[in-house]
Specification:
Porin; 12 strands; 227 residues
Length: 227
C-alpha cells in the first residue's frame, strides 16, 4: 500500500503540473528525451537538462502491478547519474556515460550504463551493465537502438535488446522492440507523446516470457524535465 501511495502521489503531482503547462513546443529549445517505457536505453545523456523525473505503472497479467520512478541528474554533458525504485525493493543507483557521438546516420552514438545496489552483507554490487548503440536517424524519422548487457538479478543472464522507433507525427513516436534474455524473448510496443519541450506521456504493452508461459503486460507513465 505504501508504494502505491508514494507512486500515486508522484504521478498525481506530475499530472497536476501537466494540467497547468503550456502545450506549445519551442523549436529552438531541446525536447525531453525519456528512457521509459522501453526495455532498451538510448545512448543520450542529459546534456541540456538539470534533473528529469520518469514515473509509471506496469501491469503484468492484470494481477501484478509494479509502480516505478526514476530520477536522472546531469553531471556533465556526457555523464548522468540516476536513482530508481519500484517502491518495494528499495532504491538503486546508476551511472551512464556517453562515450561517442556518431557523425552521420550510419555511425552510432555509443554509451555505457551500470546500475548498483547494496547487497545483504553491506557491500555494493552491480545489478545491470550494458553497452548501448543508437542510430538516431538511420532513415528519415526512423531510429534503431541496440543494448547488450547482463542482469545479475535474472540468474546472471546476458540480454540483447533491439528497438525501432518511428516519428509518426510531429509530437508522437511509435516504438517496437524485442528483448532476448537467456532463452526467453520479450516483446514491447508503444507510443511516446510530447506535451511540450519538458513533458511527455507514454503508453505501452506486449508479452513477457515467464518460464514456459507467455504473459501479457501493459503500462503507462508521465515524465518531466527541469532545466
Amino acid at each position: 500500500m505504501r508504494k502505491i501511495l508514494l507512486t500515486f502521489s508522484m504521478m498525481l503531482m506530475a499530472l497536476v503540473g501537466f494540467s497547468q503547462i503550456d502545450f506549445s513546443i519551442d523549436p529552438d529549445q531541446p525536447t525531453i528525451d525519456i528512457q521509459r517505457p522501453t526495455f532498451s536505453e538510448n545512448a543520450n545523456t542529459l546534456s541540456s537538462t538539470l534533473i528529469q523525473f520518469e514515473n509509471g505503472a506496469f501491469v503484468l497479467d492484470t494481477n501484478d502491478v509494479t509502480y516505478g520512478s526514476m530520477v536522472r541528474f546531469r553531471a556533465t554533458d556526457r555523464i548522468e547519474v540516476r536513482t530508481q525504485t519500484d517502491w518495494s525493493n528499495g532504491f538503486n543507483a546508476g551511472v551512464k556515460v556517453n562515450v561517442f557521438n556518431g557523425s552521420d546516420r550510419w555511425m552510432p552514438d555509443v554509451a555505457v550504463l551500470s546500475f548498483f545496489e547494496q547487497n545483504p552483507t553491506g557491500g555494493v554490487m552491480v545489478t545491470d551493465y550494458r553497452v548501448i548503440a543508437t542510430f538516431d536517424n538511420m532513415v528519415n524519422k526512423l531510429g534503431v537502438t541496440f543494448n547488450y548487457g547482463k542482469q545479475a538479478q535474472v540468474q546472471g543472464s546476458n540480454y540483447f535488446n533491439a528497438t525501432v522507433n518511428y516519428q509518426v507525427i510531429k509530437r508522437v513516436t511509435a516504438f517496437a522492440e524485442a528483448q532476448v534474455i537467456g532463452e526467453d524473448v520479450n516483446y514491447n510496443f508503444g507510443f511516446i507523446a510530447l506535451a511540450n519541450n519538458n513533458w511527455a506521456l507514454d503508453i505501452h504493452g506486449g508479452s513477457m516470457a515467464m518460464g514456459d508461459e507467455t504473459t501479457p503486460f501493459f503500462g503507462g507513465g508521465v515524465s518531466f524535465a527541469v532545466r
